[in-house]
Design goal:
The protein has 234 residues and is mainly α. The protein contains eleven helices and three strands; from the N terminus they run ααααααααααβββα.
Length: 234
């Protein structure tokens, strides 16, 4: 597998110089381009990244419980987060893709970019070990870690609503899309949420069905709070 003459810019972006440049090139190689692709490095990088982020969160949030730490870690290592980091590093400029993926815009695809990001972490680990990889990861994540707060570990509204109802032996909520407006790439959804408790209903709005459902669930939770407050005051 030939190695590009200059990957210096990318190495500057991640603040790490590879001793074995072939590892970096493999990390940037999609399976559509060569049999020596990045999937094994991605597997390794996923595990190493999860370990580093878990350790950092454990130190950064000493009062957080297991569930909060798990949600914070998931927030930092989910595909969307890795995709955004890959974009910041401009990994799409360095990916090695087969002709089919090139034609279909694979260098912009979230799954391919996030996989390449994890593969690079795996490559750094093989090249220099855990301690160096930890420094690289924390440097890349510096902005995200500084802006992180324990409030971000709160469960999403749909989960909180379902758990509240189940804990009181009420039926789980139902969600129904009532309206969609816009083209496929820029739709707005309206979703109705109904719960048997107090026959409450609410409508939510969002740029995806999931976001609209979360908005509707949040509105129901606020109504439940108001009902509970009224009953307490009565």
């Amino acid at each position: 597998m030939s190695i590009p003459a200059n990957l210096n810019k990318l190495q500057q972006h991640i603040d790490y110089q590879f001793k074995q440049l072939a590892l970096l090139q493999q990390a940037l190689t999609h399976r559509s381009a060569h049999h020596q692709h990045n999937e094994r490095l991605e597997f390794l990088g996923d595990a190493v990244l999860g370990n580093i982020i878990a350790e950092q969160l454990f130190q950064q949030f000493p009062q957080a419980d297991e569930g909060q730490l798990s949600r914070l870690r998931a927030f930092l290592v989910k595909e969307k987060a890795l995709f955004e980091l890959a974009q910041r590093l401009k990994l799409g400029d360095y990916l090695r893709l087969g002709s089919g993926e090139l034609k279909s815009g694979g260098f912009r695809r979230a799954s391919i970019l996030s996989d390449a990001f994890e593969a690079i972490i795996g490559a750094v680990y093989l090249d220099s070990g855990f301690n160096t990889t930890r420094k690289v990861v924390l440097q890349i994540y510096q902005q995200e870690l500084e802006s992180l707060s324990i409030e971000m570990a709160q469960k999403d509204p749909k989960t909180r609503l379902q758990e509240w109802l189940q804990a009181r032996n009420h039926d789980t909520p139902t969600y129904q899309v009532t309206k969609e407006i816009g083209k496929d790439h820029a739709k707005t959804y309206w979703v109705k949420c109904e719960v048997s408790y107090q026959s409450l209903t609410s409508e939510g709005k969002g740029t995806s069905r999931r976001k609209a459902e979360q908005d509707a669930a949040q509105n129901i939770l606020e109504k439940i709070t108001n009902v509970s407050t009224s009953n307490t005051s009565a």
